[in-house]
Automatic annotation (TrEMBL):
Gfo/Idh/MocA-like oxidoreductase N-terminal domain sequence ranges: 43-111
Signal peptide boundaries: none
InterPro entries on file: Gfo/Idh/MocA-like_OxRdtase_N (IPR000683), Gfo/Idh/MocA_Oxidoreductases (IPR051450), GFO_IDH_MocA-like_dom (IPR055170), NAD(P)-bd_dom_sf (IPR036291)
Protein name: Uncharacterized protein
Lineage, highest ranks first: Bacteria, Candidatus Sungiibacteriota
Pfam families: GFO_IDH_MocA (PF01408), GFO_IDH_MocA_C3 (PF22725)
PANTHER family, sorted: BILIVERDIN REDUCTASE A (PTHR43377), GFO_IDH_MOCA-LIKE OXIDOREDUCTASE N-TERMINAL DOMAIN-CONTAINING PROTEIN (PTHR43377:SF6)
Native source species: Candidatus Sungbacteria bacterium RIFCSPHIGHO2_02_FULL_47_11
């Protein structure tokens, strides 16, 4: 039976907060089977990697482990979906890119916003010219929690940078102004790329309220995507249009895209090349800054 017809067997690495979302989704989707779960205490990593019946691995572990697990899975012949950030070092991203090319396996980064139906609606209107020349994109990412495995830049910026990459396809940062707090819980980023408008992002930990907002201002129309709203999260202005509802969650769209790529052999929207570029952007931004 060809891979287009068979049930795809998955292993999930990680059962934390985000790993549990994948766990629930993989148990609910048709055409896939969640065969095993690897955690820091399970002791079954080698067994899972050596199991030829497991076709795909989802990596939802702390970022510092992404490279090690992704490399091992690719070498074991598995298709890989890894959460953001793909890795924490440019040299590790380069190694993975070479491994993906050599393996011929599907490799995808979980830049979930690119599988968000509202983000795709924004992309369509930018490309059609309906919004006019885009003047700037502003991303606000505020949360009450704190992470210990990465700083706030590496936690929040992959979301905004992946969207900017999707909208405007830049290849390099031309100039940057970055301000960071000494406790690594605040960052303000202003970037100019070789393509696209001004990019601005503010990310905060220990914030009094949760904010997940993307604002894109064009000469003709503007868009605001507010992920904290329960319904009708996207609005267009000048003139104001009726907000549209979503049919699927971004995570479900992401997983279905990964499965379709595994079956067809097509390159994912957020494949290793996309992930590599985001890591290079993050690495360069990390080297700027006033503390």
């Amino acid at each position: 039976m060809s891979i287009q017809q068979r049930i795809l067997n998955f292993a999930l690495f990680g059962r934390g907060k985000w790993g549990n979302n994948y766990y629930q989704l993989l148990r609910a989707l048709d055409g896939v089977s969640l065969r095993d779960v690897v955690t820091k205490d399970s002791g079954n990593l080698r067994e899972v990697l050596r199991d030829p019946s497991i076709h795909c691995v989802v990596i939802a572990t702390p970022p510092k482990t992404h490279f090690r697990f992704a490399r091992a899975a690719l070498k074991a012949g598995k298709h890989v979906l890894v959460e953001k950030p793909m890795v924490l070092r440019v040299r590790d991203a380069k190694v993975l890119a070479a491994l993906v090319k050599k393996s011929g396996r599907t490799f995808m980064v979980g830049h979930q916003y690119l599988y968000n139906e509202d983000v795709r609606r924004i992309k369509k209107r930018i490309d059609s010219g309906e919004m006019g020349a885009i003047r700037y994109m502003l991303a606000d990412h505020f949360s009450s929690g704190v992470r210990t495995d990465v700083d706030v830049l590496w936690d929040a910026a992959p979301h905004a940078l992946s969207m900017f990459q999707y909208f405007f396809n830049p290849t390099k940062i031309v100039s940057a102004c970055v301000e960071k707090s000494s406790d690594k819980g605040f960052v303000s980023v202003h970037l100019r790329f070789d393509r696209g408008p001004l990019f601005c992002m503010r990310a905060v930990w220990r914030a009094p309220e949760k904010i997940r907002k993307i604002t894109i201002v064009g000469k003709k129309r503007s868009a605001v995507l507010d992920e904290t709203l329960k319904n009708r999260k996207l609005k267009f202005f000048n003139p104001v249009s009726t907000p549209l509802s979503r049919t699927h969650t971004p995570l479900q769209n992401e997983m279905e895209h990964f499965i379709a790529c595994v079956r067809s052999g097509k390159k994912p929207l957020t494949g290793v090349e996309h992930g590599f570029r985001i890591i290079k952007f993050l690495d360069k931004i990390s080297k700027y800054g006033i503390h």
